[in-house]
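User: Can you help me understand a structure? I only have the sequence.
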Amino acid sequence: MTRGNLSSEFLDEVRSKNDIVDIASKYMTLNRRGGNFWACCPFHSEKTPSFSIKQDAQFYKCFGCGESGNVISLVMKMENVDFYTAVEILAKSAGLEMPTEADNAEMAKRKRDRDIAYQIMRATTEFYQDNLKNAPDSPQAQYLKKRGINAEMIEKFKIGASLNFDDLPKHLTKLGFKLDDMIMAGVVARGDYRVYDFYGKRLIFSICNGFGDVVAFSGRSVVESPDRTKYKNTPQSVIFNKSEILFGFNYVRDLKKQNLGLDTIVIVEGHIDVISCHQVGITNTIGCMGTALTTQHARRIKQLVENVILCLDGDSAGANATYKAIDVLKDAGLNVRVVRLEGAKDPDEFIKKFGKANFLDKLSTAIDCVDFVLTDSAKKYDLNSNAGKTKYIKEALNYISKFSTPAEQEIYLSLVQRLVKIPIDALRKSLNTLGHKEVKSKEPEQNVDMVQETLNDNYITESKIMLLSAVLYKKIDNLDEIEILFKGNDELSRLYNYLKQKLNENKEYNVSSLFDNFEINNNSLIDKVINYSFPADDVFANGIKETIARVKLYEIQQEREKLTKAMSQATSSEEKMQYLVKLKELTDLYYKEKK
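Assistant: Let's start by predicting it. Here is the structure, written out as tokens:
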């Protein structure tokens, strides 16, 4: 199996020559305790170390936030890079050559495209920056002057200008770049009669990855025209995924790496908002660039901090974006607070009108996101009418149920009670009823029969986890007698097939290799397999024996269900009698195995 077009053999070699303890020690202070190494988790804030590294198995696990992985995933998260780049970093560290074109043509092409795209982006950035410096009277330069952006910020954020449609393709051609590569990188486009600068006659904001490399541009029109969109952004490319990049994220990442006490990130909307915040020293600010926050964005943020302040634009679009962002960030486990600015449409305008101190005061008094939603959503309804109260209560209780602990619910219910002016006991009862309905809807239907009493869904899952852990850690190697449990396409069945293939091919496998072949997080069942806590040997041996016996009962159950279904579709009494005889045989076998 391969990942990112890299062979499993090459990945095994990369991992074997990069001890996870050695690599992790470059990012954090490790202390040996017992058989493992421990540190404060780099992915969430904590004072007591809960980040554990098992050197013998070459993987890490945080018992605070649940993050786990091998040496490759550690570099991916710490350096904020994709899988291929993380492998490249580790290969270089170990003195290994990445596979060449002769080894893998597709992988070599992808690497070549990435390298060329980065080169084109660097050359284009310098071209745009020189344009801005050399044309102080251009509309783009005058726009920055009007917005109060100083030279330091222009340099820091690599701001530039496209002065026309023709010069960039000519410039890049002179540097030796091919037209197809320029188009692939997203800086040049092909029209009916010519090729042209994709961002022609716009102010250029450079978009960087976690290393500070420019991977995209956002071109802003500074001249009002009904024929031109306000912004023109780089399309997806081999080096740019808009679902993962946040404007200014590389700078807050640097703050974290420098141990400068970063514990909160402020999220604003536009490029100028981010730049204005940095210009007055509020450098823990990033921008979502007017796009919806994604799960990948939230995960990137969660790697650095636990706390987020949303300070998006105050218009209706900003309000909607705030609601959506809260859902995404809360789902990622972040603590979210919200700022709504009065007297200004965005942070840039607020800072210019009221100053840094007042903006910091707004940030320090940001309200809890659930408080914000409950208060803000009340404005949509007429709370003086029964119909309005009913609609609001339903929306509010759904939100409280979704995003608060039982302890917090009392606080939020008090807020709702003040708004709707009905007894809080009635709200509590409605919330409890809502909770019961939600739980009931999630309960799988149970087939109550003699076998189901012995082997329910929870037991099956726990059995799968125990058996796969035993295979993974080489405590058992006969997979045939447990195969009936892994007939589906769920993650545990895929793990079973992976381990069985390795055993059949007589190939070595270990915990570390799983992270390159499966998506593993703290909610995944494979994570439970990896971190299964084995009991004493004699207890475990009895447990395995009993579980395999129950697996046989489960196999009988599966066959019995098939026969019962077939019998229900039988059209003759003779056919039904044949099925009844077989069912009797299975029932007798069941009781025999049960003894």
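Now, to help you interpret it: Residues 436-455 have pLDDT under 50 and may be disordered. The first helix runs from residue 8 to 16. Let me know which part you'd like to focus on.
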